[in-house]
């Protein structure tokens, strides 16, 4: 099985978010895909199979399969454009959240994703206890998004992973208005055996609509302020979110499975 490792949402090695990409002729068993994801210990391992209508894409975390992942979609598109479809201008993926496309624009990869809803929920003491800061606002879709008072709060956060697990939402995102960027964020996923996800495309399908509404914009510059860090560009159009970023190849290997 061919596997590639890509740093997504960055143009520098050892930054952005690592994704393993396995290009396979037919689907391995779910058990094998899960075991490979556990062995990799990245936040995401993507598996992609060519089918009659295009490519079928699935994503596995160390803690289980997930329905939607942005950075591993970027990593997969990067691999396919470079090694399998060098003349293609765009690639379409069938996924659990529907058909998602990726367009190559120079060294940028522009992904067309569904938008999350921003349903307001009450700010609770449990939220404050989990992250150590009282959120200004809270919103829930697949993930929980907590709006913090400042970028400094986001960057200096030291959450309690056990208490984060008890909150609603699959992932927990914190975000604030940025200084250099329109918004900054961090994302935690202890329910998926990931303390902190370095750069998260999927959760920006919730973060971007929120900040576009607050700032009166349709395009945003976003930064995820993890230790590795990563930049994203987000655009709202027709109820969809287009998220763009760069990627670099770290390794390619043959798995002995």
What would you note in describing this structure?
Helix content is 21%, strand content 43%. It has 257 residues and is of the alpha+beta class. It has two domains: 2-113 and 243-254, Diaminopimelate Epimerase, Chain A, domain 1 (Roll), CATH 3.10.310.10; 119-238, Diaminopimelate Epimerase, Chain A, domain 1. The chain has an 18-stranded mixed beta sheet that branches. The chain is globular. The mean pLDDT is 97.
Low-confidence runs: none
* First-last Cα distance: 7 Å
Domain count? 2
Estimated share of beta-strand residues? 35-45%
The amount of helix comes to 10-25%
CATH class of the largest domain, named: Alpha Beta
Q: Mind telling me which CATH architecture of the largest domain this is?
A: Roll
Structure annotation, total helices: 6
User: What is the 3D shape?
Assistant: globular
CATH-defined superfamily of the largest domain: Diaminopimelate Epimerase, Chain A, domain 1
By DSSP, the count of extended strands is 18
As a whole number of angstroms, the C-alpha radius of gyration is: 17 Å
**What is the typical, i.e. mean, pLDDT?**
97
SSE string: EEHEEEHEEEEHEEHHEEEHEEEE
Structural class: alpha+beta
Reported for the largest beta sheet, the result is:
18 strands, mixed
The CATH topology label of the largest domain is Diaminopimelate Epimerase, Chain A, domain 1
């Amino acid at each position: 099985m061919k596997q590639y490792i890509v740093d997504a949402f960055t143009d520098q090695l050892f930054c952005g978010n690592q994704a393993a990409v396995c290009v396979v002729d037919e689907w391995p068993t779910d058990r094998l895909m899960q075991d490979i994801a556990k062995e990799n210990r990245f936040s995401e391992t993507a598996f992609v199979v060519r089918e009659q209508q295009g490519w079928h894409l699935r994503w596995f975390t160390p803690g289980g399969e997930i329905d939607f992942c942005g950075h591993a979609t970027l990593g997969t598109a990067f691999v396919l454009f470079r090694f399998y479809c060098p003349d293609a201008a765009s690639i379409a993926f069938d996924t659990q959240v529907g058909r998602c496309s990726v367009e190559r624009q120079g060294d940028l990869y522009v992904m067309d994703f569904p938008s999350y809803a921003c349903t307001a929920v009450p700010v609770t003491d449990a939220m404050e206890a989990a992250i150590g800061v009282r959120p200004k606002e809270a919103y829930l879709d697949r993930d929980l998004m907590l709006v913090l008072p400042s970028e400094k709060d986001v960057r200096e956060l030291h959450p309690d992973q056990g208490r984060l697990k008890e909150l609603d939402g699959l992932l927990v995102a914190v975000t604030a208005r940025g200084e250099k960027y329109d918004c900054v964020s961090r994302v935690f996923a202890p329910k998926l055996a990931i303390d902190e996800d370095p750069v998260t495309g999927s959760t920006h399908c919730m973060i971007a609509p929120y900040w576009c509404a607050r700032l009166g914009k349709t395009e945003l510059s976003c930064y995820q302020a993890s230790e590795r860090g990563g930049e994203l560009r987000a655009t709202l159009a027709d109820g969809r979110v287009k998220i763009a970023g760069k990627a670099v190849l770290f390794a390619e290997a043959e798995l002995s499975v």
